[in-house]
Design goal:
The chain folds into two domains: about 15-215 and about 340-390, 3-Layer(aba) Sandwich (Rossmann fold), CATH 3.40.50.10540; about 245-325, formyl-coa transferase, domain 3, CATH 3.30.1540. The protein has 16 helices and eleven strands. The chain has helices at about 25-35, 65-70, 85-95, 105-110, 115-120, 145-155, 155-160, 175-195, 210-220, 235-240, 260-270, 275-280, 285-300, 305-315, 335-340, 380-390; strands at about 15-20, 40-45, 75, 100, 125-130, 205, 245, 250-255, 320-325, 340-345, 350-355. It has a six-stranded parallel β-sheet with strand order 3-2-1-4-5-6, with helices on both faces. Strand 2, helix 2 (about 65-70) and strand 3 (about 75) form a beta-alpha-beta unit. It is globular and about 80 Å long.
């Protein structure tokens, strides 16, 4: 497909109509926009909820999470309760490769934008539906948000098991939404490549619950992987209650000896090689069995030096380690500064702000990073282009 203002980057020519809200869908489409896809964000007249999340600098619809989550997209306001605006949306979808949304199934059917209805008008569309739970199962119609997925997936239980007493808490990041967004971005690209190779458009369902359980159980299915089981769920090294940052004279440090040689070098440095003699370390299975004793021995000795001193000593013996940073210290982290991760840029309406750069570096084809749009900023230009016929139908 072509547009009057083509995108740049590796995904140039990929047009996505994005009806998603909150984090799950927008996180997916932001990554694709960062790679050069043209993402047209369809918003209701009152805008995406996260436009008002957090204190805005100038315009009230330009909250900080919106600035970080919707960069590089175009905002078009349509009231989908209006037959005219629904018809306009379908015209836009005809010019696109991908239509993505996270509207619940009953609501999207009521709008007449479910796959079975839409595919009759746009036969080759890649239709990506972000749902809370797979449509095959008893949870299919339940509403889902990050907290409910954290609870139902076992994440909260895994975290609580490492506390004494058992202390269930949410992880302080919107982790289920963002992980599901990563799965969705992968699904979009796979379906797009399939169609480029001569395949067809298709319906793609991305369920948060199943995505996140898949993510968690990669290691935690553990000894229940075999049939019959040879042990229990839960990767023991990760679950051990002694697995925590070690105290130093002035803070905390994460130390993770990983190989047999790492363990020997570390306990020689700590001056207690006998700990390994009493509890054999050779081989990962033995290390997992004795990891609690090892961690306890490390924790007894790390308060004798500062974090910086330990970092120097551990670097010399090639044992992986990292200081426990406070979140606000990341803004001055020397690695992030050197890699250009944070960039101070000028937003057309909001003025200077801090923009995170995409962490993946490509040798060629990287796209420039755009700004998050004002609500409805591109409605007039996108619809004028549509009316003029300048927005050509995709070529497949």
């Amino acid at each position: 497909m072509t547009t009057s203002q083509p995108a740049t980057g590796m995904l140039e020519g990929l047009r996505i109509i994005d009806l998603s809200t909150i984090v799950f869908g927008p996180y997916c489409t932001q990554m694709l926009a960062d790679m050069g896809a043209e993402v047209i964000k369809i918003e209701a007249p009152d805008g995406d909820f996260f436009r008002q999340s957090g204190k805005a600098k100038n315009a009230p619809d330009m909250g900080p999470i919106h600035l970080t989550l919707n960069r590089g997209k175009k905002s078009v306001v349509l009231d989908l309760k209006s037959p005219e605006d629904r018809a306009t949306l379908i015209k836009l979808i005809r010019t696109a490769d991908v239509f993505i949304h996270n509207v619940r199934s009953a609501a999207i059917r009521k709008l007449g934008l479910d796959y079975d209805t839409l595919v009759k008008e746009v036969p080759d569309i890649i239709y990506v539906h972000g749902v809370g739970y797979s449509s095959v199962g008893p949870y299919a119609d339940l509403p889902a948000y990050d907290d409910t997925i954290q609870a139902g997936s076992g994440l909260i239980d895994l975290c609580a098991r490492t506390s004494d007493p058992y202390d269930p808490k949410f992880v302080p990041t919107i982790v289920a939404d963002k992980v599901s967004g990563l799965y969705a971005a992968q699904a979009v690209l796979a379906a797009y490549i399939y169609r480029l190779k001569g395949g067809k458009g298709q319906y793609v369902e991305v369920p948060m619950f199943e995505c996140f359980v898949h993510f968690l159980l990669e290691e935690h299915l553990f000894e229940r992987t075999c049939e019959p089981p040879v042990g229990s769920l839960g990767y023991r090294r990760i679950m051990d209650k002694a697995r925590k940052p070690f105290p130093t004279a002035d803070g905390y440090i994460s130390i993770l000896p990983y190989t047999d040689q790492n363990w020997r070098n570390l306990f020689d440095l700590l001056g207690c090689p006998e700990v390994l003699t009493a509890n054999p370390v050779e081989g990962s299975l033995l290390r997992v069995q004795h990891v609690g004793e090892f961690y306890a021995a490390i924790a007894l000795r790390t308060p004798t030096r500062t974090t910086a001193e330990w970092m120097d000593l551990l670097r010399d013996i090639n044992v992986p380690a990292m200081p426990v940073r406070k979140v606000d210290e990341l803004l001055e982290d020397p690695q992030l500064i050197a890699s250009g991760f944070f960039k101070r840029v000028e937003h057309p309406s909001e003025g200077p702000y801090l923009q995170m750069q995409p962490p993946i570096r490509f040798g060629a084809g990287a796209a420039p990073i755009g700004h998050a749009p004002r609500l409805g900023e591109h409605t007039q230009s996108v619809l004028a282009e549509l009316a003029s016929g300048a927005s050509a139908l995709k070529s497949v």
